[in-house]
Amino acid sequence: MDTWKEVPYHATPLADCNFCGSRVVMMQHTSNRTVDFAVSCTMGEGESPLGDACPLQDPPDQFNHATRREAAKYWNEWAALGASRRVEQQRASA
Predict the structure, then answer these.
(1) What is the total count of domains within the chain?
(2) 93 located within any domain
(3) How many alpha carbons fall within 13 Å on the CB side of residue 52?
(4) What is the 3-state secondary structure (H, E, C) of 19-69?
(5) 48: in domain
(6) Residue 25 pLDDT more than 90?
(7) Measured distance CA(9)–CA(12) in Å, rounded
(8) What is the pLDDT of residues 40-89, one digit of tens each?
(9) Does 70 fall in a domain?
């Protein structure tokens, strides 16, 4: 049985969602005998102006990691990469 639940995480700050800017939370995924962690956006269906949930409310499997610290590191590095790409695109279009 697959289950997801929010779990506390306070080791390092988590960057806001790179897709929609919403707050994020650490989630624990339990499936059969494995447990892994992923950071997930809190923007649920019906909460956005468009009515759709953020795609990162259920992030792809590449966001799942064995520890909370690894999941947070991956999320923050991914968010920083997205932010730097936006800055580069703004400079190129200016």
Answers:
(1) 1
(2) no
(3) 7
(4) CCCCCEEEEEEEECCEEEEEEEECCCCCCCCCCCCCHHHCCCHHHCECCHH
(5) yes
(6) yes
(7) 8
(8) 999 876 566 666 788 898 899 999 999 999 999 999 999 998 777 766 66
(9) yes
